[in-house]
Amino acid sequence: MVSSVSAEGNNKYCFAIDRGGTFTDVLCICPGGRVRTMKLLSEDPERYSDAPREGIRRILKEETGADLTAAGLVDTSKIGWVRMGTTVATNALLERKGDPVVLVVNSGFRDLLYIGNQARPKIFDLNIRKPANLYQTVVEVDCRIVPEQADRCQLNHQWKVLQGVTGCRYLEVQPVDELSVRASLAAAREQGINSVAVVLAHSYACPEHELRIGAIATELGFSHVTLSHKAMPMCRVVARGYTACAEAYLTPHVDRYLASFKSGFENQLAGVDVLFMQSDGGLTNMENFRGARAILSGPAGGVVGYALTGSRETDLPLIGFDMGGTSTDVSRYAGTYEHVIESTTAGVTIQAPQLDINTVAAGGGSRLFFRSGIFVVGPESAGSHPGPACYKKGGPLTVTDANLILGRILPQYFPKIFGPNENEPLDYELTKRKFGELQSDINEHLKASGDSRVLSIEEVALGFIRVANETMCRPIRALTQSRGLDTANHVLSCFGGAGGQHACSIARNLGIAKVVIHKYAGVLSAYGMALADVVQEVQEPSGAEFNDANAQLIKDRLDALSVQCRGQLAAQGFKQIELQAFLHLRYEATDGALMCTAAPVEHSQLSDQTTSPLLAAYGDFHATFLERYRTEFGFVLQNRRIIVDDIRIRGLGKNETPPELQVEQAQEASPTAEGLTEVHFDQGAFQTPIYLTKHLLAGHQISGPAVLIDQLSTIIVEPECTVQVTAYGDLIMDVQTSGKHGINAELDPVHLSIFSHRFMSIAEQMGRVLQRTSISTNIKERLDFSCALFGPDGGLVSNAPHIPVHLGAMQETVQYQLRVRGDTLKNGDVILANHPQAGGSHLPDLTVITPVFFKSEPRPVFFVASRGHHADIGGITPGSMPPHSTSLAQEGAAFKSFLIVENGVFQEEKIIQRLTTPSGAKGAVGTRNLSDNLSDLKAQIAANHKGIHLVSELISSYSLNVVQAYMHHIQKNAELAVRDMLRQIGRDTLERTGSTVLVAKEFMDDGSPISLRVTIDPENGSALCDFSGSGEEVWGNCNAPRAITLSALIYCLRCMVGHDVPLNQGCLAPIQVVIPKNSILDPSEGAAVVGGNVQTSQRIVDTVLKAFRVCAASQGCMNNITIGDDQWGYYETVAGGAGAGPGWHGAGGVHTHMTNTRITDPEILELRYPMILKRFCLRTDGSGGRGKHVGGEGVERDLLFRKPVTLSVLTERRTLQPYGLAGGGPGKSGRNLIVKHDGRVIALAGKTCIDVEAGDTFAMKTPGGGGYGLEDDSSTADQQGIENIQRFVERGTVHNYRQSQESA
User: Fold this and answer.
1) 535-544, 572-581, 587-596, 680-689: least confident range
2) pLDDT class of 132 with cuts at 50, 70, 90
3) What positions does the domain Hydantoinase A/oxoprolinase occupy (predicted)?
4) Where does residue 1055 rank: exposed (0-12), middle (13-18), buried (19+ CB within 10 A)?
5) Alpha-carbon distance 491 to 487, whole Å?
6) Contact (Cβ atoms closer than 8 angstroms) between residue 765 and residue 477
7) How far is Cα 490 from Cα 1048, in angstroms, rounded to an integer?
8) CA 376 to CA 389: how far, in whole Å?
């Protein structure tokens, strides 16, 4: 394809470069406008030391004949500019190869960044692997600043008052101990540490202490001093601390790379305009390129590239689809860049403006597996080394290999850079041989399952491609539909080396009718660097209420930041400068802050004398906030104050990038093919024409099937699709979408995987609707809910998210309704339930169930349900979780089977009456927050309605018979996975002990036993789990409803399986469960149960894992703390130690098993509640059990009360210790103490409710985890094997949302 851009007129060569993890892409704009591209390996030390510099040198040599000066440096006389994105910071973060850092924190917070939000990264991993620290050592400083809280604080103090930059007042509890700081930092300096990160509580508003410590560090000779309030002046000390640490850790590494890059050029690039891409999609001078803002440097270029080029071809919003070797990046552009202010990469939360780029688990190098009858793609990746099998370096089968088998990659058009010496072509025969081995395994499984089909190698490969495509479609649906957007109403903008092979299928699966592929799609990230503007950001915290009274103040701060930003860009020589003003707005007492620009205001609106000065100068921020809030969440809050968290100005220094010129016009509609090749599609094998894109001209049209070969990528045009070449040489692909799928009800392992994704997607999208339309903090922000799909028998099909205590529990609720209501359910009925006898967990968890009717079917064909934790439903204490309840009536309103919607009519009067009527227990009242209850119940009904719509769509596409058949197939597949696991455990147990019976007994702190006897049949993979012998129902609230025991059992089974399986009723099919009636595990109808949900559930898990001898006990407690008075309430659960296992030490300061709740950031805690967090760190008394592998440490958490409050504590493992295993020692039990203001120390029971006074401190030590193995055991037989694999790193709002859900 002949293409060019207009010349700059200076006869110089301009370079845009994307240095990726595997390849470096170079795009050069030559004098006269001609464009050259080049792709190099990013690492090739035998040939060159730096890939971007080598790319520049080669092009200069080929174009001018002269590349180096006499000194051997690259000649810069012909270089106009260099714009570059690089993964150097990302790679250093992923591989933890940054500089040693000393972290300076307030005393008592030494482990704050290690504990983080206390949630574990992967909910089913018993071997909890927390991200490695970015700091090498910690200095604790005796200094402290807290919010004044003059209206609530009743402490008798003489603390100095400080004025914060937000306008709020703070108290200096303790000034900086400068002598101690100097001595501690000097010691760190003597260890050779040159980088320091200073992270102090509330420094974003009161930076005095950080500034003083920073000055001391500079005096001592630290070369890199990062102060958290300068790295990012935003509230939340944990996220700000990660950002400061990343800055201190990465920036020296980035600086060294920049110095190395410059060193190979004449005069170190002096006089050449060199700019680097930041995570926000803007360029910055090389001198200002910092570590924390460089994480998405390369991917950001791709977003800029498709946004600025793709939008000229359509008015519809674009979905960016960048498929690389290890993973795929997905993003969205609808006229403006979509930024997030906080995002997590490699376990590090960065507070900085970043493009919302979502990384998903399917790239060209994603590995292929066949597990328990299901096709699996990723998330493991072969990476660049060893790479796919066809690379001839000993790699495994991957998506790339599948495309090679199908003829979608043609080796003759690939460079010969493979094999041990990197001089061989792709190896088709090796890939075919490996696929043959996999084919044999699959066909043997089919034969053993009674399936007579024999799949060919091509059918196997095509199956994996279909699964990979569905894997990528799922997050795209989440990215769009989570915001109420129609995925089909988008255009897919495809780029990246592997994207063109999948674009047609992805678009068809999503219902998208058009795909845009830019002519530089293979190097679009590099081209995006050429198109981007220089960005300068300035930001400061605020805290002001957004109202007319503060309008002038907010305008003045925007004005001041605008002057600062414009001045910084002008100093860089920019004449054309654009400024964008932002306010970070949220409703008071919520966490859902939105970064808002101002909506334009018509001149006629400004004629009123009362016009706000802010409105007149900048536009209507209020209108933007309301519109975005309504779009994101489905409603706005009435009569609620709006708070300005931050004020921000984003300045653009406009670059004069040469515009693209149009390509030559074709004289004939169809181009000439280079030849034919056989390619396999869903429709069969076709002799497919091959076209070289370099020969395509404007106006050419190609009908599929076709293979388009670009210099840097391959594009597959599927049958029934057409491609047209635009005036600029880009490709527009029209995709024929069909709503019908021609498959039958017989089990197909490929469609088994696809339906597994589709069923999960239904539950996920229901959850997004529930989160958007709910109003309470628990559901909207803490995401404490689950949504699920059930079969006509009430059996679970899919559940999202995977909150352990909800797993399988809703199935009991749905099946109870079927037993009670039978055939009386009608279309338009919706049922409400929460009673333990009806499958409930505890009363605040309200479950809404809706039957799904389809056309003329007389009975429900499916059920959908949503379970959400309501903040209050009455009872004897606020929050409906009393620590001392002895009957269910004390815990709030109970519903067994209540028709909340009947014949399509919401029964508002009836539900209000039930919720507001006290339960009858002494001291009990009705709900304390009726409006939130009603709003959240309506949101749950709306989520179910979404589920009905999606199920109906699926049935319309495949037929009821097929969808229900695959529902059963999915459940059978889960059963198969559990049977395989039980067979293996049965054989191992028989070999180890001579028996297939496993026995375990654990005790609650009150002595109540949890007994389990497991009898395994290793032949058919079944087991009897008998809890007979467990304790009687208790006089208290630690009784666990039957559903809790089943949830704990499913959780343990999933953990032991060790890989993803569909979590549905099939998991329990091979297991017969015996639970004695009227016991602690299946109490009578009126028994109190709130502690069973949060405490006994943990002991059940301890007992199951002990029986199977999987690992030592974790802390076995959720450490529930409730604090408040008549005006406010606060609830938290606190982390502890994880149990060690064969091959791993237990993690410390983390939630385990049946909970994964995030903890409130210390700054938010102290701003909103009359408390001071004095200590939050790991225990130092050896709470982790000893052993070959030691248990994780519990935590110490001390809360100082600033006024009298009521403290409720609901804890376990205060008497009995978490067990060790295989000779390992037990973890230490926890302790609850009150330190009175006069110095007395009082021990509290595990379950208590007391009134405390101002000046009292609640000091908690949570239990540690048990150890595993004898300390003197030198055997390494139980060490985990280390496999040469690379896992993709998820990031973006879709990933963050799922992490939030799984930490509810």
Assistant:
1) 587-596
2) confident
3) 240-537
4) buried
5) 9
6) yes
7) 42
8) 17
* Polymer length in residues for the chain: 1304
699 contacts: CB under 8 Å, gap ≥ 6: 665, 666, 669, 724, 725
Helix (H) or strand (E) holding 277: strand 273-277
What Å distances lie between residue 924 and 874, 882, 1206, CA to CA? 7, 11, 17
Order of all β-strands in the sheet with 101-106: 137-141, 101-106, 195-199, 224-227
Strands (E), 874-943: 898-902, 905-906
What region, left, alpha or beta, does residue 396 occupy, with left being phi > 0 and alpha being psi -120 to 50 degrees? beta
Find out whether 141 and 177 touch, Cβ atoms under 8 Å: yes
Residue 665: how many CB atoms within 10 A of its CB?
11
818-825: long-range pairs with CB below 8 Å, 24+: 818/793, 818/794, 820/896, 820/897, 821/897, 823/859, 825/851, 825/860
- For the chain, state the CA radius of gyration: 31
> Cα-flanking dihedrals φ and ψ of residue 944, to 5°?
-65, -40
DSSP 786-854: EEEEE-TTS-EEEEES--GGGTTHHHHHHHHHHHHHGGG--TT-EEEE--GGGT-SSTTEEEEEEEE--
pLDDT over 50 (residue 1287): no
Say if residues 176 and 217 touch (Cβ distance below 8 Å).
no
Q: What is the pLDDT of residue 1283?
A: 32
Cα angle 770-776-777, degrees, rounded to a multiple of 5 = 105
Q: What is the C-alpha to C-alpha distance for residues 119 and 18, in angstroms, rounded to an integer? A: 35
> Measured between alpha carbons, how far is 632 from 485 in angstroms, rounded to an integer?
10
pLDDT tens digit string along 1227-1256?
Answer: 999 999 999 999 999 999 999 989 999 999
Q: For residues 817 and 849, is the Cβ–Cβ distance under 8 A?
A: yes
For residue 817, give the nearest of 830, 798, 808 by alpha carbon: 830
Residue 1016 DSSP class: E
Q: What is the largest CA-CA distance in the chain?
A: 95
CA–CA separation, 955 and 963 (whole Å): 6
Give long-range contacts, CB 8 A cutoff, 24+ apart: 77-81. Answer: 77/266, 78/11, 78/12, 78/13, 79/12, 79/13, 79/14, 79/15, 79/272, 80/8, 80/10, 80/12, 80/13, 80/14, 80/29, 80/272, 80/273, 81/14, 81/15, 81/272, 81/273, 81/274, 81/275
- Report d(CA 361, CA 1290) in Å as an integer: 7
Q: Where are the beta strands (DSSP E) in 1155-1194?
A: 1171-1178
For residues 148-154, average pLDDT: 93
Within 10 Å of residue 270's Cβ, how many Cβ atoms? Answer: 10
How high is the pLDDT of residue 457? Answer: 94
Two tokens, residue 599: 């909506």
- β-strands 514-517, 491-495 pairing: parallel
The whole-number average pLDDT for the span 1198-1203 is 97
**CA 789 to centroid of chain Cα atoms:** 23
Confidence of residue 1288 (pLDDT cuts 50, 70, 90): very low
Rounded-to-integer distance, Cα 598 and Cα 158, Å: 44
Give CA–CA dist 202/146, Å, rounded.
Answer: 7
- Per the CB < 8 A criterion, the answer to whether 576 and 566 are in contact is no
pLDDT digits (tens, 9 = 90+) for 768-786: 888 777 877 777 766 788 8
Q: Select from 878, 883, 874, 889 the least CA-distant residue to 921.
A: 889
Q: What is the pTM of this model?
A: 0.85
Strand partners, 587: 642
CA distances from 958 to 376, 718, 738 (A): 22, 21, 11
Measured in degrees and rounded to the nearest 5, phi and psi for residue 197 equal -120, 125
**Tell me: the pLDDT tens digits for 665-708?**
888 888 999 999 999 998 899 999 999 988 999 999 999 899 99
Mean pLDDT confidence for 608-612 = 58
Question: What's the CA dihedral at 716, 721, 722, 726 to 10 degrees?
Answer: -70
Residue 670's Cβ-side half-sphere holds a number of Cα atoms within 13 Å equal to 10
